[in-house]
Design brief:
427 residues; mainly alpha; two-stranded antiparallel sheet; 17 helices; 2% strand
């Protein structure tokens, strides 16, 4: 029992580090910005070490396959790819440490733990919404917008109307998007099951979520919220009083939207978001460009752009990451591909790369089917978490540490929320 308690504490520490990691790198310990990147990896090694040899260690074929691929990829990177050991180890840590950690979270956490973390997420969402609003209105030279490693150019990313997309407590704006996407899952779940949370916290976090959408100037967050809303409606569709419940929800969100739209302090975020949404959609060919091309383009482009000598083994694992590009080229650039599947194929080649992509597809669809079946038993938690988790598990960026952290966290939470159904995934 002591081992289980220590592992659970370690998972909570992993969650806390994921939330504050960017703040440590930007505000508190900027001189240690690079070493801080691997703190969660060191913690993951410790947790797997504590669990090893006990019933808590995740023993299944997916962990074994990913682990084996990671080891093989180190050797192929050294002998057939970029040849840099540090880059290879940094890339392989995803398969050797982080993926097993995902399954460890799913194995030791209970549905009650998942709900408890949801409450904490909602509490954090309120000051996070205040922070990104402050960052939105502050110049990039302000302390609150300071970049990683004392970078005075700012951590914000180009937005519209002269405003920048705020990073929150993360190193980059993608962390803000991932966090509030997770907030959206829990907000909708707790509206389905309000008995698990205080009404005042639920209302406050709902407003924080709605405020974050325009303030983030992120279409990704808007689309993710829309997907979560669809999952929410679906989960309600088989319940008695469906029309009544949905009507209440629509009226409630309409009322909240009216308040937000008429709040003078949010005029600039709303205008900036609207401008970026329209301009970016036109530039990328509308919905097709935003969703379909981004989804398939990376994979198709990866197959077509591979050089002959890299077709079989790829250019080497880790090369497509920011750390890999910095170590190999001396600058931050996309050495392989910006899209996740394209990066995987480019790093690992046609055989191993396609196997990794296939495993991600298999996991994503298997889990969402199991989650959907649990709706029949009245368990909406995994279904609502999959509203964010599905696309993240399918093609979320492993090469970006924050995105990888949310991949591991949401994957583990979904498996934990399924608990008695996990064996279906492994059959």
């Amino acid at each position: 029992m002591r081992q289980l308690k220590n592992i659970k504490i370690g998972i909570w520490i992993y969650f806390v580090i994921l939330i504050i990691e960017g703040g440590l790198r930007r505000w508190i310990l900027p001189s240690l910005a690079t070493p801080i990147l691997v703190i969660r990896d060191i913690l993951g090694i410790y947790l797997l070490f504590v669990a090893y040899g006990t019933d808590y260690f995740p023993k299944n074929r997916l962990v074994s396959i990913f682990f084996s691929i990671g080891l093989i990829s180190i050797f192929t990177a050294l002998f057939f790819g970029h040849g840099n050991l540090l880059v290879a180890l940094f890339g392989a840590r995803i398969l050797i440490i982080q993926i097993p950690l995902l399954f460890l979270i799913g194995h030791v956490f209970t549905p009650e733990d998942v709900i408890a973390m949801g409450r904490v997420v909602l509490w954090i969402s309120i000051p996070m919404a205040i922070l990104i609003t402050l960052q939105f209105y502050s110049p990039q030279s302000a302390w609150v917008n300071k970049g990683v490693g004392d970078n005075l150019e700012g951590a914000g990313f180009s937005g519209s109307n002269g405003f920048f997309r705020p990073p929150g407590t993360f190193s980059f704006t993608s962390g803000t998007v991932s966090f509030f996407s997770l907030v959206g899952c829990y907000v909708m779940y707790f509206w389905l099951q309000p008995k698990f949370i205080s009404k005042s916290l639920l209302i406050a976090s709902s407003f924080a979520l709605l405020i974050s959408i325009p303030t983030s100037i992120s279409r990704s967050l808007f689309f993710q919220f829309t997907i979560t809303l669809i999952f929410f409606i679906w989960s309600n569709s088989s319940k008695s009083g469906f029309i009544k419940n949905i009507s209440k929800m629509i009226i409630g969100f309409a009322f909240a939207a009216i308040l937000i739209l008429n709040f003078k302090g949010l005029e600039d975020p709303i205008n900036a978001f609207s401008t970026r949404f329209t301009a970016a959609n036109e530039g990328e060919g509308g919905l097709k460009g935003v969703l379909i091309d981004r989804f398939l383009g990376g994979l198709v482009g990866a197959f077509s752009s591979l050089e002959d000598k890299y077709v079989v083994f790829g250019q080497g694992i880790g090369m497509g990451s920011n750390v890999g590009s910095q170590l190999l080229s001396g600058k931050l650039t996309f050495l392989i591909a910006e899209g996740e599947w394209g990066r995987i194929i480019g790093e690992s080649g046609m055989i191993i790369g396609f196997l990794i992509v296939f495993l991600r597809i298999y996991m994503s669809f298997k889990i969402i089917f199991i989650s959907f079946n649990r709706l029949k038993d009245g368990n909406e938690l995994p279904w609502m978490l999959m509203s964010f988790g599905f696309l993240l598990l399918l093609q979320g960026l492993w090469s970006q540490p924050t995105s990888l952290g949310f991949y591991v966290l949401i994957g583990g939470l979904i498996l934990a929320s399924l608990k008695d159904s996990q064996k279906e995934l492994l059959e």
